[in-house]
Fold:
Amino acid sequence: HKALGSRAKQIGYPLEFDATAGHSAGQLEAFEAAGAARFDEDILPVALAGSHYLHEHSQKNKGGLTAVFLGKNGSPEQFMELKARLNYYGTMIALENTPTQFVIGGLEEGLAEAEAYMKETGVKFSRIPKIEGPFHTTYVQEPSMQVKPLIDSTHFSYPKFQVWANSTGRMINSPEQFRAESYFQIFMPVLWRQIIQNMIEQEGIGRFFVIDPSYDGEAPISRTI
Structure:
C-alpha cells in the first residue's frame, strides 16, 4: 500500500481510504495499512515463522488448493450441494471469493478424487500452482499452533481505519482481535465474499481499490459498487 500511495501521489491521485481488508496473506498488509501493526517489526516475523512451519508440515502432508468455477448461472443451492459432495472426499472450502467461485483445499488423494468427480460432472476447476498445502483448512491447524506463541507476543495497536477479518467476515478493532485473527485465518476459510458484502451493506462502502503487485498500469485499480 505504501508503494501504491507513493505512486498515486506522483500522478495527482492521492490515496485515501476508510477501510482495509486483505485476501489471505494480504490481510497482514491490511493490518499494517490501517495502522494496527508495523510491517518489519510485527508482521514480517510472524509471516516468516508461519511460512517455515507450513513448509515443514507440507513436506509430510502433501496437498494443495483447487479453484472451482460454477459459472454465471451458478446458484447458492448448487454451491451448497457441491460443497457437501466435495466434503465427502475430505476436501474443505478454503476461500469463498464470489458467489460462483471458491477454492477447496485437501490432502493430495482427496483433492485428486474431488477433481475427478468435478471433471466427470462438468464442473470447471483448476489446481492452483505453487501451493504447498491445503492452506485455510483444518489440515494446517498443527503448524498454526506452532506459530501461535509468536502471534500472542506480537504487538498490535488500535487501528486508524476499519479492518475486516478473513475468518469471520466482520470488523475487528482491538489488539486482542488482531492476534486472534492472525492465528485463526491460517486454518479457517477466507470469507472474502462475505467481507465485501458486509462492507457494502453495513458501512455503505462503495468504492474499492485493488492493490495487486502484478498490475503495471498508469493508475490505481478501483471498482465502484
Remarks:
- Confidence is low (pLDDT under 50) at residues 218-225.
- DSSP finds eight helices and nine strands in the chain.
